[in-house]
Amino acid sequence: MPPNNKQSKANRALEALDKGEIGIIKPRDYKGELDRPRPGVWAGKTKASSPDTTISSAIPLYSVDAHSPMRTGWKKTIYYEVRISSRNRREVSLAMGYAAPPYPTFRLPGWHRGCLAVHGDDGSKFINDRWGGKDFTAPFQPGQTLGLGMTFTPRDVNAPPSYGPAQTTAQTPIDVEVFFTRDGRKDGSWNLHEEGDAQEDLPVTGLEGFNDLYAAVGTFENVEFEIVFNRGVGTIGGRSLVEGLQRLQVGSYLFGFNVELEKGSEPLSIVP
């Protein structure tokens, strides 16, 4: 069965998405604590005996009906962060990614169709990868804030070739860039349709902008973390957007991301 792209979205879910007040779905086999200290932030701490599990957002961060560039004519960027506790052990047994439903909660993100992820224990990226992933970044470290985003841009497949370096050879109507941040700075990116090893790479079906995409955070063994969805759009404690983010999100790429939104680089509201 192909990834489900027909899930309905209630208005209240879209409003929650716009505010960053996003819930999560806790896997049945998850062992440990998982609480919401404040709207849009989830704090977790797993046990050493924890098996592979994937926590997903309760609503899609990318909704085909609301966000597809083919529908809106706008590019769309989705993004969230994970903060690793400074008390965490040296190896960070956590992965962060995006998945098109349905996705098995008993596997780490990136190991199954319709999913991509960056794994913290070795820094490898996985895209529907049943093998060992590909080298991408350094392993996650205790005390770091990591972020993962995807940008969907409308693409004119009939346009003449540009004089710049080719970004992709795929003739798809949506160009998809995946980017990764570490402590508020961009730390790598890739184009979803970059040329790879045809003998090993499996299809990226479900990730191309034609299906809803949910945040997917995988854990195994013991790890202490926070999942941060709330982008702080609007005022924070009566302060302005910029002042509030400077005070509360130092070392977070979310600050710069929101400043760009405030400047009007893309719509603040979700297109119905």
TrEMBL record:
It is found in: Membrane. Keywords: Membrane, Transmembrane, Transmembrane helix. The keyword Translocase does not apply. Residues 28-38 have a biased composition (Basic and acidic residues). InterPro entries: B30.2/SPRY_sf, SPRY_Ssh4-like, Ubq-SigPath_Reg. Residues 28-49 are annotated as: Disordered. It comes from the Eukaryota. This is Protein ssh4. It comes from Lachnellula suecica.
